[in-house]
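Forgive a beginner's question, but would it be possible to get any protein sequence you like and the tokens describing how it folds?
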Amino acid sequence: MPVDMLESIKMIAEPVILEEGMELVDVEYRREGRGWVLRLYIDKEGGVTLDDCSDISKQVGQLIEVNDLISHPYTFEVSSPGLNRPLKSEDDFTRYRGKLVQLRLHNPIEGRRTFKGRLLDNREGVIRIEMEDEIVILPFNNIKKANLQYEF
């Protein structure tokens, strides 16, 4: 899906999701075994329910169809981000301070691309995590993928 189409979907979906007291975590559009899938990940304090997903699916699904944003068959899903929630924005890194995270970088630092540790803070475009009594400093713009890690 072209980036502008993905942005159009975000622009349509986000106000509806915010109005319902939730946040849009991520949007995926990809080919899977059964064809193309458009998937929205939503979250709210305390977690989302099946009713939340169903409600957002109805509202946003209608808007996508009315605006004719996708011209071929696809499956539309609305889901919780799950226990290993992705961290996308700098605000996410601020909100989840103290949590265990795993980060994958675009460009390696000291020969490593993957880092797992406790998220200390996010300031001025720099993420700090604690890994085995060592504090690691990573530039936000070098983070390719970041997720919370579920702690048992």
About this structure: The helical segments are 3-19, 50-66, 90-95. The longest strand covers residues 112-123. Residues 102 and 116 are 4 Å apart (CA to CA). The chain is about 25% helix and 40% strand.
